[in-house]
Amino acid sequence: MFRSCSSFLQRFSSRLKVQPDNDDHPRQKESVKKLISSPHEQSSRPPSVEDDDEGHLIYRHGDILRDRYKVINTLGEGTFGKVVKVVDSRNEKAVALKIIKNVEKYREAAKLEINVLEKLAEADPESRRLWVIMLDWFDYHGHMCITFEMLGLSVFDFQKENNYQPYPMEQVQHISYQMCYAVKFLHDNRLTHTDLKPENILFLNSDYDVSYHTKKKREIRRVRDTRIKLIDFGSATFDHEHHSTVVSTRHYRAPEVILELGWAQPCDVWSMGCILFELYLGITLFQTHDNQEHLAMMERILGPLPYRMCRKTKTKYFYHGRLDWDDKSAAGRYVRENCKPLKRYIPMIDEDHRNLFDIVFRMLDYEPSQRITLAEALDHPFFAKLPAELLLHKQDQRSSSLSMEVKSGLRERSHSLSR
């Protein structure tokens, strides 16, 4: 899979983050003003501080930012800026430093991400719900900078370095369970992530063991620790905030977003269905860059779009309530040759596979209101074989029940003493 140079380049280029340009994004104006006026900021700009043509901060190994963070190496790069491994001189620990481009729209997005992370910290001070911990933030001469705990590779990067080898079933179960648990916490706090994808799910530690696959005649990596955390809250949106028309990276974009019918938390669930499929099979479910082709792929894989959605949308992808698509065109042949009904992707028929594809089907329901909720997903049979110590939501339920019993006992004791 993906052995030819051309197919590899196509696969690599398809993963570039697609972010809509939303200059008018009136979210959390008060928080933004608070961040702008914060003493964290530095206004002076020494001549030694330079940016490249794209707005990235120019730095070198050994540079020290803010008299505290020593640059070690670059961990990754995106449309927003770069992530750098640095050592915090206060405790000599390695942390990840996200350096945002010196570009206004990315600065504003970073301030919104800081606001979201601060709100999550208030709701979950110990980060038990598997979201990345923000350690510090500051403005470095026009570059918003955020430091995070150091994590491992993303589930995408690990899979890419493993020649897109699918994850074993039990690892898919644990990774996707944690994803449901973490995103449910966001949804419970009236927040939609809006950019869930394998690149934004990081292992706590991506160390691995190696074995030789005789049939494929190559070494296969197996990650040792499947614990994960969610990252990248730059596009996360609270229910009461402005909702951009277009959200999510292309391959994980829900149909209601493409059809401009409005979106809410269920768009995250759609993205998770796509991710679950990709973790297990090592291929992207919707490999396209065009809206109409994307919808054609959906119909090929999942069946016809609901008539209600086709009639309600104001987009020009339909004719008399049906997708305006030519199956005999070059694009039509591409869709037929590269997509098939979802059930035909099931490699074998056993309980685990039936459950896996059942939860994927339910996550990929066209109608957002009919899509499985994450509370329902956590109790889905697909996760039934996970060890009890990994079922975090069950632990939460027991803790909540115990807390209520203690409070009830205290009330009864207080009542009896007052008598």
UniProtKB/TrEMBL annotation:
InterPro entries: CLK_kinases, Kinase-like_dom_sf, Prot_kinase_dom, Protein_kinase_ATP_BS, Ser/Thr_kinase_AS. Pfam families: Pkinase. PANTHER family: SERINE/THREONINE-PROTEIN KINASE DOA-RELATED, SERINE_THREONINE-PROTEIN KINASE DOA. The keyword Amino-acid biosynthesis does not apply. Belongs to the protein kinase superfamily. CMGC Ser/Thr protein kinase family. Lammer subfamily. CDD domains: PKc_CLK. Residues 18-33 have a biased composition (Basic and acidic residues). Residues 69-383 form the Protein kinase domain. ATP binds at residue 98. Residues 16-54 are annotated as: Disordered. It comes from the Eukaryota. This is Dual specificity protein kinase CLK2-like isoform X1. Keywords: ATP-binding, Kinase, Nucleotide-binding, Serine/threonine-protein kinase, Transferase. It comes from Limulus polyphemus (Atlantic horseshoe crab).
